[in-house]
Amino acid sequence: QEAVKKLRSTVSLIKRVLRDAEGKQGKDDAVDFWLRSLKQILLDAEDVLEENAINSAAFQAREVDSTRLAIDLGEKVRNVFSGIAELPNSYDTAHQIEGIRKELDDLSKEIKNLGLLELLGGNSRAENRGPRRFDTDSMLADKSYIIGRDDEKEKIIKLLVAPGTGAEQMSN
Protein backbone atom coordinates (compact mmCIF):
# COMPACT_ATOMS: atom_id res chain seq x y z
CA GLN A 1 0.00 0.00 0.00
CA GLU A 2 2.79 2.40 0.91
CA ALA A 3 4.63 1.67 -2.35
CA VAL A 4 1.48 2.37 -4.36
CA LYS A 5 0.97 5.64 -2.47
CA LYS A 6 4.56 6.73 -3.23
CA LEU A 7 4.17 5.70 -6.87
CA ARG A 8 0.99 7.78 -7.24
CA SER A 9 2.70 10.80 -5.72
CA THR A 10 5.70 10.49 -8.05
CA VAL A 11 3.52 9.99 -11.13
CA SER A 12 1.43 13.02 -10.14
CA LEU A 13 4.55 15.20 -9.93
CA ILE A 14 5.83 13.96 -13.28
CA LYS A 15 2.45 14.66 -14.90
CA ARG A 16 2.54 18.24 -13.62
CA VAL A 17 5.92 18.97 -15.24
CA LEU A 18 5.44 16.92 -18.39
CA ARG A 19 3.93 19.74 -20.47
CA ASP A 20 6.82 22.06 -19.55
CA ALA A 21 9.32 19.32 -20.47
CA GLU A 22 7.59 18.74 -23.81
CA GLY A 23 7.77 22.49 -24.47
CA LYS A 24 11.54 22.39 -23.95
CA GLN A 25 11.95 19.25 -26.05
CA GLY A 26 14.42 19.74 -28.88
CA LYS A 27 15.91 22.81 -27.20
CA ASP A 28 17.59 21.17 -24.20
CA ASP A 29 19.52 17.90 -24.54
CA ALA A 30 19.14 17.09 -20.84
CA VAL A 31 15.35 17.46 -21.06
CA ASP A 32 15.34 15.31 -24.21
CA PHE A 33 17.26 12.59 -22.35
CA TRP A 34 14.88 12.90 -19.38
CA LEU A 35 11.86 12.46 -21.66
CA ARG A 36 13.43 9.43 -23.39
CA SER A 37 14.15 7.89 -19.97
CA LEU A 38 10.58 8.54 -18.86
CA LYS A 39 9.24 6.93 -22.03
CA GLN A 40 11.37 3.82 -21.46
CA ILE A 41 10.26 3.49 -17.85
CA LEU A 42 6.63 3.83 -18.89
CA LEU A 43 7.11 1.15 -21.56
CA ASP A 44 8.62 -1.13 -18.90
CA ALA A 45 5.67 -0.45 -16.59
CA GLU A 46 3.25 -1.20 -19.41
CA ASP A 47 5.03 -4.52 -20.06
CA VAL A 48 4.77 -5.50 -16.38
CA LEU A 49 1.07 -4.65 -16.28
CA GLU A 50 0.35 -6.52 -19.52
CA GLU A 51 2.31 -9.56 -18.34
CA ASN A 52 0.44 -9.54 -15.04
CA ALA A 53 -2.93 -9.23 -16.83
CA ILE A 54 -2.07 -12.08 -19.20
CA ASN A 55 -0.91 -14.31 -16.34
CA SER A 56 -4.03 -13.52 -14.31
CA ALA A 57 -6.31 -14.25 -17.27
CA ALA A 58 -4.48 -17.51 -18.02
CA PHE A 59 -4.73 -18.58 -14.37
CA GLN A 60 -8.44 -17.79 -14.24
CA ALA A 61 -9.04 -19.75 -17.46
CA ARG A 62 -7.16 -22.77 -16.07
CA GLU A 63 -9.10 -22.51 -12.81
CA VAL A 64 -12.43 -22.62 -14.69
CA ASP A 65 -11.24 -25.56 -16.82
CA SER A 66 -9.97 -27.48 -13.79
CA THR A 67 -13.28 -27.00 -11.97
CA ARG A 68 -15.20 -28.38 -14.95
CA LEU A 69 -12.84 -31.32 -15.47
CA ALA A 70 -12.35 -32.32 -11.84
CA ILE A 71 -14.24 -35.49 -11.06
CA ASP A 72 -13.31 -36.13 -7.46
CA LEU A 73 -11.81 -34.26 -4.53
CA GLY A 74 -8.32 -35.67 -5.13
CA GLU A 75 -8.21 -34.32 -8.66
CA LYS A 76 -9.52 -30.94 -7.50
CA VAL A 77 -6.73 -30.70 -4.93
CA ARG A 78 -4.15 -31.71 -7.53
CA ASN A 79 -5.49 -29.08 -9.98
CA VAL A 80 -5.53 -26.34 -7.35
CA PHE A 81 -1.94 -27.01 -6.27
CA SER A 82 -0.69 -27.14 -9.85
CA GLY A 83 -2.56 -23.86 -10.45
CA ILE A 84 -0.91 -22.25 -7.44
CA ALA A 85 2.50 -23.09 -8.87
CA GLU A 86 1.48 -21.26 -12.04
CA LEU A 87 -0.11 -18.27 -10.29
CA PRO A 88 1.26 -14.93 -11.37
CA ASN A 89 4.10 -14.40 -8.94
CA SER A 90 2.89 -11.41 -6.97
CA TYR A 91 6.31 -11.07 -5.32
CA ASP A 92 8.01 -10.79 -8.72
CA THR A 93 5.39 -8.31 -9.90
CA ALA A 94 5.73 -6.28 -6.70
CA HIS A 95 9.51 -6.33 -7.10
CA GLN A 96 9.23 -5.13 -10.71
CA ILE A 97 6.81 -2.37 -9.72
CA GLU A 98 9.13 -1.29 -6.90
CA GLY A 99 11.99 -1.07 -9.43
CA ILE A 100 9.87 1.08 -11.71
CA ARG A 101 8.89 3.30 -8.77
CA LYS A 102 12.56 3.81 -7.87
CA GLU A 103 13.39 4.73 -11.47
CA LEU A 104 10.53 7.24 -11.52
CA ASP A 105 11.72 8.65 -8.17
CA ASP A 106 15.18 9.14 -9.67
CA LEU A 107 13.64 10.96 -12.63
CA SER A 108 11.54 13.14 -10.35
CA LYS A 109 14.69 14.18 -8.46
CA GLU A 110 16.10 15.56 -11.73
CA ILE A 111 13.10 17.85 -12.27
CA LYS A 112 14.55 20.72 -10.24
CA ASN A 113 17.98 20.46 -11.88
CA LEU A 114 16.37 20.60 -15.33
CA GLY A 115 14.42 23.72 -14.40
CA LEU A 116 11.08 22.09 -15.20
CA LEU A 117 8.06 23.88 -13.81
CA GLU A 118 4.91 22.35 -12.39
CA LEU A 119 1.76 23.32 -14.26
CA LEU A 120 -0.90 24.92 -12.12
CA GLY A 121 -4.38 25.05 -13.59
CA GLY A 122 -3.07 24.65 -17.12
CA ASN A 123 -0.44 27.39 -16.81
CA SER A 124 3.14 27.05 -15.73
CA ARG A 125 4.59 29.51 -13.26
CA ALA A 126 6.72 30.94 -16.07
CA GLU A 127 3.62 31.71 -18.15
CA ASN A 128 2.05 33.50 -15.18
CA ARG A 129 4.98 35.96 -15.09
CA GLY A 130 4.16 37.49 -18.45
CA PRO A 131 3.62 36.81 -22.12
CA ARG A 132 5.52 33.92 -23.57
CA ARG A 133 8.09 34.78 -26.21
CA PHE A 134 8.36 32.54 -29.22
CA ASP A 135 11.38 32.15 -31.45
CA THR A 136 10.82 33.92 -34.75
CA ASP A 137 13.87 32.58 -36.51
CA SER A 138 13.48 30.13 -39.35
CA MET A 139 14.22 26.46 -38.80
CA LEU A 140 16.16 26.38 -42.08
CA ALA A 141 19.91 26.19 -41.63
CA ASP A 142 20.59 27.71 -45.06
CA LYS A 143 18.83 31.09 -45.27
CA SER A 144 19.34 31.25 -49.06
CA TYR A 145 16.30 29.01 -49.46
CA ILE A 146 14.06 31.72 -48.03
CA ILE A 147 12.66 33.82 -50.85
CA GLY A 148 10.28 36.74 -51.05
CA ARG A 149 11.22 38.57 -47.88
CA ASP A 150 13.87 40.95 -49.19
CA ASP A 151 11.44 43.09 -51.23
CA GLU A 152 8.99 43.39 -48.35
CA LYS A 153 11.80 44.22 -45.93
CA GLU A 154 13.09 47.01 -48.20
CA LYS A 155 9.58 48.51 -48.56
CA ILE A 156 9.11 48.55 -44.80
CA ILE A 157 12.51 50.16 -44.21
CA LYS A 158 11.77 52.85 -46.83
CA LEU A 159 8.42 53.55 -45.17
CA LEU A 160 10.04 53.90 -41.77
CA VAL A 161 12.87 56.23 -42.80
CA ALA A 162 11.01 58.31 -45.40
CA PRO A 163 9.89 61.85 -44.48
CA GLY A 164 6.22 62.26 -43.66
CA THR A 165 3.86 60.16 -41.60
CA GLY A 166 4.02 57.13 -43.82
CA ALA A 167 0.24 57.04 -44.14
CA GLU A 168 0.40 59.00 -47.43
CA GLN A 169 3.02 56.63 -48.80
CA MET A 170 1.10 53.52 -47.80
CA SER A 171 -1.96 54.65 -49.75
CA ASN A 172 0.18 55.00 -52.91
From TrEMBL:
Domain Disease resistance N-terminal residues, every copy: 2-58
Keyword annotations: Leucine-rich repeat, Nucleotide-binding, Plant defense, Repeat
BP GO annotations: defense response
Pfam families tied to this protein: Rx_N
The protein's name: Disease resistance protein RGA2
Organism name: Anthurium amnicola
InterPro entries: Rx_N (IPR041118)
Family: Belongs to the disease resistance NB-LRR family.
MF GO annotations: nucleotide binding
